[in-house]
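Continuing the batch. This is chain 6 of the set; chains 1 through 5 are on the previous pages. Same settings as before, nothing changed between runs. Recording input and output for traceability.
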Amino acid sequence: MDDLRQKYLDLIAGVADEAALEDLRVAAVGKKGEISLQMRELGRMTPEERQEAGPRLNALKDEINAALAAKKAGLADAALDERLRAEWLDVTLPARTRRQGTIHPVSQVTEELTAIFADMGFAVAEGPQVESDWFNFDALNIPAEHPTRTEMDTFYMHRDAGDDRPPHVLRTHTSPVQIRAMQANGAPIRVIAPGRVYRADYDQTHTPMFHQVEGLAIDRDLSMANLKWVLEEFCRAYFEVDHVELRFRASHFPFTEPSAEVDLRCSWEGGQLKVGEGDDWMEILGSGMVHPKVLQAAGIDPDQWQGFAFGMGIDRIAMLKYGIPDLRAFFESDLRWLRHYGFAALDQPTLHGGLSR
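Output for chain 6:
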């Protein structure tokens, strides 16, 4: 046993890597290792021989295992030291130049309008982009024969033959979020719902996927006057001007009554948009008082509560404010375009610090 002990201690001391150490462990104390085979011989010994040899073999096995563990730890420490030497970095060297990322205009404008409406007490509500046609159409008082419910305008999800579940669509507006918010929180309520929406349209000012924000306020005595004030304050803050003038034109939306398109006084002198001055008018959003049937669908008593709603395209107001000529470029993933129109990653819009710096 003394020879066996010395043999393996010498071999362990001279091993150079963990793979060779593992081979040595198997040769010594593995199932078929020399020490393990010696221990199997205990069964053939007399009780007196076993009483003498057993403790010595166990002590030998423990000593070899301890030597193996110590060597393994030593090899790991040596490997770490070598890695630290190889990966050493002189932190006093000048840093390599690296371009900072930029924020997409849609993300920037979403942050801007969120800051503006938050200052007026509006919370942000979210909902799924795949909606049942009840939330997307029926709950919003959109009749079955309405042209927006055709496949020419709306993306319907595929259904197998015989599937009798309600049809689902890619939401065509964020108005379903208003229904969900009213169902969840009741009245009074003030929320905006920014997000992606989908419609089957594609040209210089339309894309199949775009971004929209809708606002909703429900209380006991809200009126069109409150709606006008909210929209004026938004336009003044968003376009960062001291004065704006809005014009309401009678219109029709199934989910509001009365309904109005909202125009903004502006001028286009030299091809540049100037808000609040000039003789031109530009349509920017749709609005109105929430239809009683919409309140009923959301579980709110229209005899006790009333409110207003509005909606606008985030991409479109981004184009107006930052002079972006083509909506399609928003979604073409062109880094040159983003570097030109993008915003600094740490440039967070706030009302006190400025929206666009």
